[in-house]
Amino acid sequence: MTDFIRKRWPKIVVAVIFVVLAGTFLWKSNIKEGQLEWGSVEGLNLTDQQKQQYEETVKKLEDSNGDKKNPTALSDLARLRDQGGDPEGSIKIYQKALAEEPDNTLVLYNLADVYYSIGDYGKTEEMYRRIINNHPLEMPVYRRLFDLYRDKIKTKYPSVLEILLRGWQYNSDRPAEFIKMLALYYSDMGDIETAKQYYQQLLIIEPNNQDARDQLKRLGGK
Questions:
Q1: Rounded CA gap, 211 and 183, in Å?
Q2: Lowest-confidence region among 43-52, 127-136, 162-171
Q3: In terms of domains, do 145 and 113 share one?
């Protein structure tokens, strides 16, 4: 051992120990952060029936050969965590379910609901857009996205026009819902004549639609 190493050996040992301890701490922190305490209902505001359902769902996941790749069970667990007052934990579980089935419409809807409940409208929008991209025939999502833009993300409201027109092409056999949203959109944007045209189209399809008649009258149409 050279004099250089001998003189600095204590410092080298301390440095190595520090690096090992720091690495161990970070490793454990990452594991803890990535893990979900699925088996615990501590802190959750659940009824006895919900707690039983929770425990049964956890057991179902644990019996899946330890891999916990069960999107349906994961969704059930996520829903219960959200109902119990843990939206962040619910989101993590829904995200794991999506990792197994990225196109699962129910999971995307549920995840959007949780994001909406905590005021993360950007993530809510992302989930709705994923549903539209994966399942353009999924009618309810167009209304949800329309309402989200109209009520919560108003700066993006104008962009909903293209989405509605494209959605109408995919769902040409169900025009009424799109006509309702388009009429309301143009009314909101101040294009009264176009709004009246859409309400008139709607009345051809649904002659007994009283709301359409009222809106048309409000806009000065017949």
A1: 12
A2: 43-52
A3: no
